[in-house]
Amino acid sequence: MIEDKDIERLKEIFVTRQECNTTNDEINRKLSNDSTRLAVIESQLKTITWILTTVGAGVLATVIKLFFGA
Fold this sequence. Notes:
It contains 2 helices and no strands. The protein is mainly α.
């Protein structure tokens, strides 16, 4: 039969379900925070890309006008 000493020894070797759930909850919380931060960074990157595209189009138009004159 399984005795109390055996159960204690198994608890030393293996992770209990409660410890596993706690660890998983902590990891999920951290991943959720990272996901939120990535969404903010992605939004800012889209804004910066549009601004750079607009500025680049203006510079390109100015260079073309300088070469072909008006």
